[in-house]
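Incident log, support desk, overnight shift.

02:14 A customer reports that sequence design results differ from what the structure should imply. Their input is reproduced verbatim below. On-call engineer (initials T.W.) acknowledged and began investigating.
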C-alpha cells in the first residue's frame, strides 16, 4: 500500500497504516510468544527458575505476590486484549502491561517475558465466559525454564 502510493505519488493515511500494522504484527508477535512460552503440564516447573526467579523476588517479594498481581492485570483487561510481563533494560525492573486488542507499539523497548491472551476466543471453548478459571489454569503450563533462558539474553 505504501509502496504503491509512493510509486504513484499519491497520499496514504499513515495513522491508519500504523494502526493496522500494529494490530496485525502485534497479533503475530503475541501469539507466537504465547505458543512458545507454554509447555505440557507434566513438564512445567510451576514456579519461575534461575535469574528470572531472583528478579521476581527482588521486584515483587514473593512469587505468590507476583502471581496475584499478574492475575489481576490479566483479569482486568477491558474487552479483548492481553496481559504481559515485560522488562525495562534501563531500570532493570520487571513490569506489567495491559495490551488493547493486539496493539504492541511498546514492544521494541520492552521485551515480552510472559503473555496471556485474554480475548474470549482464547478460553470460551473450555471455560465459557470464565476468564478467571482460564487464567488460573494457565499457571500450570508455563515453561519457566525456557523463559529464564531467554531472560538471560535480554539484560
Ligand atoms: Fe488469540
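02:41 Re-run completed on a clean worker. Output:
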Amino acid at each position: 500500500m505504501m509502496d504503491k502510493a509512493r510509486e504513484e505519488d499519491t497520499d496514504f493515511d499513515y495513522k491508519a497504516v500504523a494502526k493496522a500494522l500494529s494490530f496485525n504484527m502485534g497479533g503475530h508477535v503475541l501469539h507466537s510468544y504465547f505458543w512458545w512460552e507454554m509447555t505440557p503440564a507434566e513438564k512445567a516447573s510451576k514456579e519461575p527458575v534461575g535469574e528470572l526467579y531472583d528478579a521476581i523476588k527482588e521486584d515483587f517479594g514473593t512469587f505468590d505476590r507476583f502471581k496475584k498481581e499478574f492475575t489481576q492485570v490479566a483479569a482486568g483487561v477491558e474487552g479483548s486484549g492481553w496481559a504481559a510481563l515485560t522488562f525495562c533494560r534501563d531500570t532493570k525492573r520487571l513490569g506489567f502491561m495491559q495490551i488493547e486488542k493486539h496493539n504492541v507499539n511498546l514492544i521494541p523497548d520492552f521485551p515480552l517475558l510472559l503473555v496471556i491472551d485474554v480475548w474470549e476466543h482464547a478460553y470460551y471453548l473450555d471455560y465459557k465466559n470464565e476468564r478467571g478459571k482460564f487464567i488460573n489454569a494457565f499457571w500450570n503450563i508455563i515453561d519457566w525454564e525456557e523463559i529464564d533462558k531467554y531472560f538471560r539474553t535480554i539484560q
